[in-house]
């Protein structure tokens, strides 16, 4: 009993035969490098994925948004480094690394 299998878990001609069969159909005998095989397809689960042509626009938008966020983060880090110059070994009173200061303006 192979249990539930997915594409890529079997080998060549046997995989092709199993995945082209309908539920309840017997496949084989099929010879592979591991010997002869016969299988009965108990059930077929429909693919849960979205075909690439349908997903392409959404993937492109998601990758573009991530690239924009990385570019902004890089720009912001550079601007912060340019504009905020602290004296060595000095922490701003509101910096959380400095404990629990009382900071008033």
Account of the protein in words:
The chain is of the alpha+beta class. Helix content is 38%, strand content 12%. Strands 1-2 form a two-stranded antiparallel sheet. Strand 1 and strand 2 form a beta hairpin. The longest helix is centred in the middle third of the chain and has 32 residues, at 52-83. The radius of gyration is 30 Å and the shape is elongated.
Name the helix and strand elements from N-terminus to C-terminus, one letter apiece.
HEEH
Strand content: 5-15%
The value of Rg in angstroms is 30 Å
Helix content: 25-40%
| N-to-C span | 74 Å
Order of strands in the sheet with most strands? 1-2
Biggest sheet overview: 2 strands, antiparallel
Structural class of the secondary elements? Answer: alpha+beta
Q: Report the uncertain regions.
A: none
Discrete helix count: 2
Mean pLDDT: 83
Oligomer: single chain
Number of strands: 2
Shape: elongated
Could you outline the blueprint of secondary structure elements for this entry?
Blueprint: H1 12-19, E1 26-32, E2 35-40, H2 52-83
Antiparallel strand pairs: 1-2
Keywords:
2 helices; alpha+beta; 2 strands; two-stranded antiparallel sheet; 105 residues
Outline of this structure?
With 105 residues, this protein is an alpha+beta fold. The chain is 38% helix and 12% strand.
